[in-house]
């Protein structure tokens, strides 16, 4: 299959001399993102200050993220990281009734678990579902863990470790049938896997911009369903969470309507420029064709790894995985550096090397990378 996005690949000049396969960690830099960052610097240089223009860009970034996940722009808040967003949601919950249980998993990125654990001092009872041997969580395990005391079920959409993907609709139905909210960490899926928060009916979904959203660190988006957002009063707050941030009324804590109430202080404006450009590019192409192509690349990666008898830590069923294919190796960090010296960028995590393509990658790059790993394992 020829890459369907040959034209868009030209927007990523570094790909001419680098194989960039680490979108589960940091995607490649594109011209639109670079230009967007420059335009912030230019605005600052030329205008000295353009508060309104910079704030508009933050709103545009929210709009693009809303479009990506089929939410309304008013249902999106901007924070600095997924850790911040998870903390913001957790802090807005009350654990003081019988319904004080958090059901989460051991395949979550640790920062989410850390956030829930920090609320034990507020009476949260935190239960971690252990993974199966293949790093998945069975539906039965969720059925056993979620009950009438569960306040929130907290899951990753796609695992950071091996790309294992979960069915959001099925899990939101299960959580809701017990009266639990569903909180989703979509940092490993947003930008590479279709997300429809209305169809899947998740309550809260968070993602940062650095990975498949093609942006930079320091900005994360938080979707909170409108009906829920209006019932919550965040503990972590600031002037941008007020009805009118510019009213400067020190003694009035009036929460803004809908999810803007989760905004806190001055937003990460320069990061919003980058995020808007990255997500806008994804929206222009469309996530569905991107997802289809990434599934194809997953197939190529798995097939090539099997041919070279590499140990695959990801699901072999493409329907159950995101872009990331994890290859189990000894000395993953060392191998990551070794491949980098050949201008092949992959991402090590514990005992795996993660090969995480985006739409701009080619079949050829996947094959070359897997061959380079196989070769390194034989010769090192
Ligand atoms: C799924 C997932 N969630 C959260 C994080 C960490 O997010 P942050 O550093 O924005 O808190 C990562 C980072 O790799 C991740 O992969």
From TrEMBL:
The UniProt entry's coiled-coil ranges are none
- This chain belongs to the protein called Selenocysteine lyase/cysteine desulfurase
Question: Where would I find the Aminotransferase class V domain in this sequence?
Answer: 29-348
Key word Signal present: no
The question of whether Mitochondrion is a record keyword is answered with no
**What terms describe the molecular function in GO for this protein?**
lyase activity
Cite the Pfam families for this sequence: Aminotran_5 (PF00266)
Cofactor(s) annotated in UniProt: pyridoxal 5'-phosphate
Family of this protein: Belongs to the class-V pyridoxal-phosphate-dependent aminotransferase family.
What keywords tag this UniProt record? Lyase, Pyridoxal phosphate
